[in-house]
Amino acid sequence: MFTDVLKTPHTLTCAAMLLSFSALLGACSDNSTGSVPTSAVSTLGVPGAGNVATVAVPAATVTGPVTGKPVLVSTFFSLAALGYEQAEYYVSGTASSYTNVNEFAPDGQWQVQASEQAAYKTRIVVNRPIDPEEFNGSVVVEWLNVSAGFDSAPDWGMLHTELIRQGYAWVGVTAQKVGVESLLDGSAAALAGGDPNRYTDLHHPGDSYAFDIYSQIAQALRAPEAVAPLGDLTALRLIAAGESQSAHYMMTYVNAFAPLHALYDAYFIHSRLAGSASLGGGFLDDSASVPETVRVREDLGTPVMMLQTETDLFVLGSYPSRQEDSANFRLWEVAGTAHADLYTFLDNRLDTGTNPKVAAVIENATPIPGVIDCAKPVNAGPQHFVANAAIRALDTWLVEGSAPTMAARLEVAGTPEAFVLDALGNVQGGIRTPYVDVPIATLSGEGQPRDQAGFCFLSGTTALFDAATLGSLYTDNADYIDAVTKSADDAVSKGFLIPEDAALIKAYAQGSDIFAP
Questions:
Q1: In angstroms, how far apart are the furthest CA atoms of the chain?
Q2: pTM, rounded to two decimals
Q3: pLDDT tens-digit profile of 372-405?
Q4: CA 301 to CA 307: how far, in whole Å?
Q5: CA distance 367 to 24
Q6: E strand spans, 271-311
Q7: DSSP per-residue letters across 398-410
Q8: I need a surface site. Which of 16, 278, 396, 410 has the fewest CB within 10 A?
């Protein structure tokens, strides 16, 4: 199934949707830059794994900041108004490709060795607090997603309200060849906006070098030389992150390169697919055999948080690779969610974390008319809220040493295996929120026709309940509001929602009337 999906036009994942949205509205984000003095960065050691000996990784050479506006799909609100600034830097060096030493088994305990070398020059985009006093010490380093044929930042889009609230720095890495080529030929700027003439001397030797490039950039963040990409900020923790297509690469990075290079303090794997990227960099590249079932290695001495939506298990094929929690691994599967939901299409672009309307459950089949037109209303579930809780839990794990709550798995049964649904059509098990425990709709990560054009097959569905169903569930609107409040508070107590987002969910419920015509 996974191979068939990859061979269809549906390979364009949520990155493409974000880019389409940017094309419609234009890139309006604030991109302030300024002088960037050098600062010291913590070089605390990161443990390797098992018997894998770590090797020294050179730091990428950093130049910049580059004047003008970066080409990147991003949020549309002013970063400066929230105390943040954006800067872009060129990063260059000589990277290695790698070959496997042992057979790539499903347990992820892989060993690789350097092979050929080639020069590269790519870029990073940095969003950081202007005031060093507001920086929490953690840097989320996102492997930018190129599913659409050029860069987008789905994890920044999904997590930015929490990152800004807590004072993280964020670094978006153009790790792959497609990302560089789209900057060179202007195709990215044509849709995302920005200055297309700033990238003329970038060059990328191929995705087999992307893993080492990602490591060399981490080294440059940990131990900056002439130019410090984080400015006056001192990085205490680096969190590697990737969503969807980038999570596919992150799986390979965690299993093969995390123990070897030991540069990241934690890993956030968001909406992984079946299998894992090959060392050659491709989904279907046979230069190094990667099994379709791949799990995170259990001997890795650094925390790994994996966040999965309903769509990811069967539509995108990750279910056979599901694994149990362990000392350094947590898997959160979230009920009522889709890989690319309504928040992905609409609210995340303007969401600054204070508007209760982002908690609304509505039916919308055409979130971007003429661009995203689906057969059924797309999923309006809680992925973004639980993602915020996941990144906070991961950071707390690093800072305080307290591991995130273990979550129940989404319930699966039957032959062929499928989700177990309740009487209202919502999946049972998994992480619970008011969206599924105090429902006003059936929220699914599935249900869109697989043969429709575009991206809708990744977007799940929303089906609002009729008045009779609502009446059978709640005595009146006050009863509904009370139930939402209790459910949200329960999710907060378990760590699956953060208080700030639970407050938005409760505020929206308190201002609504589910029985209104």
A1: 68
A2: 0.91
A3: 899 999 999 999 999 999 999 999 999 999 999 9
A4: 19
A5: 11
A6: 304-308
A7: HHH-PPPPP-PPB
A8: 396
